[in-house]
Amino acid sequence: MDDQQRKAQLKKTFDTVAEGYGSRGMEFFHNAAAHLPRVLKLQGHEHLLDVATGTGIAATAIALHLPHGKVTGIDLSEGMLAQARARAQSLGLANIELHAMDMQDIGFDNARFDAANCSFGLFFLPDMTSLLQHIASRVKPGGQVVACSFTQDSFAPNVDLFLERIQRYGIAPPPLTWKNICTEEQFHTLYASAGLSDVETQRHDVGYFLNDAEAWWRVIWYGGFRGLVAQLSETQLAQFKQEHLAEISALRTGQGVPLNVGALFASGRVA
Ligand SMILES: C[S@@+](CC[C@H](N)C(=O)[O-])C[C@H]1O[C@@H](n2cnc3c(N)ncnc32)[C@H](O)[C@@H]1O
Fold first, then answer.
1. Which residues line ligand 1 (CB under 6 A)?
2. Which pLDDT tens digit goes with each residue over 113-158?
3. What pTM did the predictor assign?
4. DSSP H or E stretch at residue 99
5. For a pocket test of ligand 1, which of 103, 108, 154, 178 has the largest count of ligand atoms closer than 8 A to its C-beta?
6. Architecture, CATH, for domain 3-155+177-208+261-269
């Protein structure tokens, strides 16, 4: 699959899941976004670029802390951006503008943002160094570039059970893209290779207990796995869901079904 085909597939997947993205069970995106104002050390007047803004979970969390500033969000998926617009409107935020744009080809050539953020977006591209350099090229000297990914053990053991079982249905899952950047060491190496200085990393637990196994199914259905389960026939899908949710229910404790998620943040400065 070439670069354009991969991008078209990603856009289609996110257009499909946009409506349910961030729904009940997927609060980890919100929990992660809640850390951003502190990671970005926001003062309240900045103009920030949010790359791969999706449904605007990070962008709105940041915009709420910018009484005199604003956020410009970009994303490939019109479906995700439509949700972002609705989210900004429902929060009464007038300081967000959103654009359909490829993060590998960010416009605003003459604009130099005070800072940039990319939550759960870097790992979609094989060349994360070039991407980070491209994002940094739109930030003023001395400005911060923040990125966030999942920690290595996120979604375990649920995701391992899911991948093991779907293989029994003859589906070969591709490697999990977020595992390309899931440790503090990898972030330090990436930021150094992109020429960013004063690199700091931090990790936060953003997991919780799900009410039931159905909530885990929503993570699959509205998260990155729709493309895989969509390959099953209707009958197979029903059987797969029943078998998989039975093994997820078996993980249940007195508090619910654990969902282990760690968010890893990195920040660096443009020279
Ligand atoms: C996992 S979501 C993260 C959304 C958001 N940052 C958040 O924290 O909830 C990843 C987003 O990256 C976007 N994306 C993937 N490849 C992209 C590209 N080449 N250019 C712009 N956006 C892209 C997808 O459309 C999707 O909305």
1. 7, 10, 14, 29, 52-54, 57-58, 75-77, 80, 102-104, 119-121, 124
2. 999 999 999 999 999 999 999 999 999 999 999 999 999 999 999 9
3. 0.96
4. strand 96-100
5. 103
6. 3-Layer(aba) Sandwich (3.40)
